[in-house]
Design a protein that fits this description.
414 residues; mainly alpha; 2 domains; 17 helices
C-alpha cells in the first residue's frame, strides 16, 4: 500500500510539473494576449477533465476497484469509451465559439477542442490504472506524455514557430500519444459504443459527484469575479497568488483522493467505525502535511517570495495567514470526502454539502467589503471551515449507515 501511495503521488507530481513547465514556457515565449488565450483554453481543459473524472472515472474506482479482472477490464473499456464520447459535446461547443470569436482566442479554442477527446481519454486511462492498483503504470504514462511533449516543444523552437496554438498542439498531441499508449499498457480498447450504457448505469452516483463540483467551482469563480469588481484586480491577483503557493498541498490532496478511494473500495469490510477511523487517518496525514507546508510559507523570507511571485508577493504576504488556515482546514475534509465517495453514498445529506457553494461566494464577497484582501481571504477560510464541518457531519451519518446495512459497497455487472 505504501508503494502504491508513493507511485500515486509521483504520478500527480509528474502531471502537475509538466503542466506547470508548459505554462511557464508559454508565458515567456508569447505575447501577453496570446498567453491569455492559452490560459483560457488550458483552464477549460482542466475543468472538463474534472467533470469527466467524476462523470465516468469515479464510478469505475468506487464500484470496480475490487472486482474480478474480467469484470474490471470490461468496465474500464466502457469507462474510457465514455470519456471519449463525453468529450465530443464540449469540443463541438468550443469549436463553434472559437469560430465566432476569432482573434487570439478562437484558434486556441478550436485547437483544444480538436484534441479534447484524446486528452480526456488519456486521463481516463490514468484513472483506470489507479483504480486497478497500478499507479506506477499511470505515472509511466504521464512521464511519456511529458517526454513526448518536450520533444514536440523542442521541434517547435527549432522551427521557429513559437505561438500559443503551436504549444497547445505540442502538448495536446503528446497527450493523444499517451492515450494510445494507455490502451497498449492496459491491453484493452475503449468501447465508445457502450458509453451511454455506462453513463446511465452509474448516473445514480455521478450526478451527485458532478453537481458538487459544478456548484462549488461555479460559486468560487463567481466569487473571484465579484471580488475583482469590488476590490479591484489587485485583490484577485493576491488570491490567485496565494493559490499558487498552496499548490503543493492541492497536488497532495488530489493524489490522495485518487489513491484512497480505490483502496477503500476494494476493502468492503471497512464500514461503520472502521470507515470513520480510516477517514480520520487520511485527514490526519493531510493535516500534518498542510501544517508543515503552511508553517514554511509563514516563515518564508521575503526575497524568496519575490522571486516566486514578483510584485504580487507584497499583496500575497498580507493574506498569507488566513490562506494557510484555509489550506489546513480544507485538508481536514479529505478523509470524509473519500469515505463518502468510496461508500457510494453521495446522496446522503447532499443538500448540506451544496450549502458549501454559496458559503464561498458569501465569505469572499462579504469579506472584501468589510476588510479588503485580508477580509476576503478570511471569509474564504471561514467557508472552508463550513465545508469541512459539513463533510464530517455527512461522513459520520454515512459511516453509521454502512454499519447498519452491514456493508458499504455495491458491486455491479459492467
Amino acid at each position: 500500500m505504501a508503494r502504491r501511495a508513493g507511485w500515486s503521488t509521483a504520478d500527480q507530481v509528474i502531471s502537475s510539473l509538466s503542466n506547470f513547465a508548459l505554462s511557464v514556457l508559454v508565458a515567456r515565449e508569447v505575447s501577453a494576449r496570446e498567453y491569455g488565450a492559452f490560459a483560457l483554453s488550458f483552464a477549460l481543459y482542466g475543468y472538463l477533465v474534472m467533470v469527466s473524472r467524476l462523470l465516468v472515472s469515479q464510478p469505475l474506482a468506487v464500484r470496480f476497484s475490487g472486482a474480478e479482472s474480467a469484470d474490471f477490464n470490461h468496465a474500464a473499456q466502457q469507462s474510457t469509451g465514455a470519456a471519449f464520447v463525453v468529450a465530443l459535446v464540449p469540443a463541438a461547443g468550443m469549436t463553434a465559439i472559437g469560430i465566432m470569436v476569432g482573434g487570439e482566442v478562437g484558434p486556441t479554442l478550436i485547437t483544444t477542442a480538436a484534441l479534447l477527446p484524446g486528452l480526456l481519454l488519456q486521463d481516463s486511462w490514468r484513472m483506470a490504472f489507479l483504480a486497478a492498483g497500478r499507479p506506477g503504470t499511470a505515472a509511466a504514462n504521464d512521464a511519456v506524455w511529458g517526454l513526448v511533449q518536450l520533444v514536440f516543444v523542442l521541434a517547435l523552437s527549432v522551427a521557429g514557430y513559437a505561438s500559443a496554438v503551436g504549444y497547445l498542439l505540442a502538448w495536446g498531441l503528446a497527450g493523444c500519444v499517451a492515450a494510445a499508449l494507455g490502451a497498449a499498457q492496459a491491453g484493452l480498447a475503449p468501447a465508445p459504443r457502450k458509453a451511454w450504457r455506462w453513463l446511465a448505469s452509474h448516473w445514480d452516483l455521478s450526478r451527485y459527484f458532478v453537481s458538487e463540483l459544478v456548484a462549488i467551482n461555479g460559486a468560487t469563480q463567481l466569487m473571484l469575479v465579484v471580488v475583482a469588481a469590488i476590490g479591484g484586480l489587485t485583490v484577485t491577483g493576491a488570491l490567485r497568488g496565494a493559490m499558487v503557493l498552496t499548490g503543493p498541498v492541492a497536488i497532495l490532496s488530489m493524489s490522495g483522493m485518487a489513491f484512497v478511494i480505490p483502496e477503500l473500495s476494494r476493502r468492503p469490510w471497512i464500514v461503520g467505525r472502521r470507515l470513520l477511523w480510516a477517514g480520520i487517518a487520511v485527514s490526519g496525514v493531510m493535516l500534518v502535511a498542510a501544517a508543515a507546508w503552511g508553517s514554511f510559507l509563514l516563515v518564508m523570507p521575503d526575497v524568496l517570495g519575490r522571486q516566486l511571485l514578483g510584485d504580487t508577493w507584497g499583496s500575497v504576504d498580507a493574506i498569507l495567514l488566513p490562506t494557510v488556515i484555509a489550506m489546513v482546514v480544507s485538508a481536514a475534509a479529505l478523509g470524509p470526502t473519500c469515505g463518502v465517495y468510496a461508500a457510494q453514498r453521495p446522496r446522503v445529506l447532499f443538500p448540506l454539502q451544496l450549502m458549501a457553494a454559496p458559503a464561498f461566494l458569501v465569505g469572499g464577497v462579504v469579506g472584501v467589503l468589510l476588510g479588503g484582501p485580508v477580509g476576503a481571504a478570511t471569509g474564504i477560510a471561514l467557508a472552508h471551515a463550513f465545508n469541512a464541518g459539513a463533510a464530517w457531519t455527512r461522513f459520520t451519518v454515512v459511516a453509521r449507515l454502512t454499519a447498519g446495512s452491514g456493508g458499504a459497497f455495491e458491486r455491479r455487472r459492467p
